[in-house]
User: Fold this.
Amino acid sequence: MLDVPENTVGLHIDAVGDPTFLYAISHMESQDGDVLVSESPAGVTITNQDRQLSPFPGPFKSPNRSASPNTGVATLLAPNNLNVNFYPGIWRIRVSALGPFGAVNTTTDLRITFKRGATPQTTGRLPVHFFFTGSNGWTAQSAPNNSAFQAAVERMASFYRAIGIELTDFTFDDISASYRQVDIGPLGPGRPESSLHDMFSLNTYDTGVALFFVDRIGMGQSGGIVGGISGGTPGPLRPETVRSGVAVATLLSSSPGELGHVMAHETGHYLGLFHTQETVGGIVDQLNDTPTGFFSSDNLMFPTVTSAPASLSDEQAWVIYRNPIIEDADDD
Assistant:
């Protein structure tokens, strides 16, 4: 049972468990019977395409979407759209886990963070921590004065500045060049070895978001087809987990504009935003003011990379501001 206090505008859940299992927040229901997340959401038919998108298709198609494929950590941001009925009081949540042969009984280290405010937040700060493998010639020493890197950061910052959020408190750290080529992370339970997850665990900062710059994610040529990966939707608030970061493949494009787009897009996932349009199944996000269809690439969360103008919608900003990771603009 979970007692949501008064003036709560959002809550963030992360449950850290065995890195060989897949986890999800699979149920969230109020004492009054409002169901935000369910393994069998009312009025929803689960299809095979839904199962391709998530090993927990019910939570993925629930009113408050949950369960992007997460190995080792389950996460949830609530509310993550304006169409759900979230309010103070008693709520029941359940964490589910899958092992190599199906559902398993296990334990997690569960952490719930409430974001409270008497009035809606419209400005904020997002600390950003940069980790360098030597990819693109960038290091902790060279990046602050490198024009291409600064242009990519400015491109990223422009998306968030437009909704009132300033990127701040930059830190710069070098990590081993052995992480210049990382895998895409385990695709199912039972495979704990992952260079991507090992890399994310190097993030020791307990604020903001950590961005890791690598050559490639996976084995494709020219950066492969994976330009970036977020540790979750949303990512965990706590550091040093197998999901505590965002990876950006610099060899996907030499354009700072496109790299900045990837940095901002994957950070959007980390803050709790889903794609406006999934590439299979015709699934769209749960927001009312985002464009749909495959000719709507002028939204940051459309699943393509571009240096052309793009933006976040008002409701996407509303979701981001529910995440405790966004600090009050007046905080020192």
In short: Residues 256-271 form the longest helix (16 residues). The radius of gyration is 19 Å. The chain is about 15% helix and 25% strand.
